[in-house]
Write a structure and sequence with these properties.
The structure is a single chain. The chain contains 5 helices and 8 strands, in the order αββββαββααβαβ. By secondary structure, it is an alpha+beta fold. Strands 1, 2, 3, 4, 5, 6, 7 and 8 form an 8-stranded antiparallel β-sheet that branches.
């Protein structure tokens, strides 16, 4: 799998299968677990948070460099995703993203006044795309039997 288009597709397919990662501003040491919602056609991730979180307050009036880190050996994706994070007021997008998980965090549901939508415009993603946990075990066993280094997949930086 070396074609850039195939790597982009594998990245999005695996990212769609994950439901969370660690999100933070690039110049901050504090990263927090956040559920992401993918928008592959636009090259964006979306997040639903509360207006009073440190992250949302840090974005007030500005777009900032941010990172979203995802790791899942079962899905075979490890990635450091970099881009720009901003506050967005888009009721239609919020309606599109709203789900049972998001509703668990807001007392007044979809119309809670504390809801804040975040848009993450992806610039690059340094990715390790592997065959997943079963393929990893196979490659390790094969390397022990043959003495060859295990083939653990593709390591590439994708541009968006």
């Amino acid at each position: 799998m070396t074609d850039t288009q195939d790597l982009h597709k594998a990245f999005w397919d695996r990212l769609d299968s994950l439901n969370a990662g660690m999100l933070g501003l690039s110049d901050d040491r504090r990263f927090i677990p956040m559920s992401h919602y993918t928008d592959r056609d636009a090259g964006k991730l979306w997040f639903i948070t509360a207006k009073e979180t440190d992250l949302a307050r840090s974005l007030a009036g500005s777009e900032r460099d941010a990172m979203h880190i995802v790791c899942d050996s079962g899905e075979g994706l490890f990635a450091r995703i970099e881009g720009r994070l901003s506050l967005v007021d888009d009721p239609a997008k919020l309606d599109e993203l709203w789900n049972a998980v998001a509703s668990s965090w807001f007392e007044d549901g979809r119309h809670d006044s504390d809801i804040q939508l975040l848009r993450f415009n992806i610039a690059t993603a340094e990715t390790w795309i592997t065959g997943g946990s079963v393929a990893f075990l196979y490659q390790i066993a094969k390397s022990k039997a043959t003495g060859d280094k295990p083939d653990l997949g593709e390591h590439v930086t994708l541009n968006f």
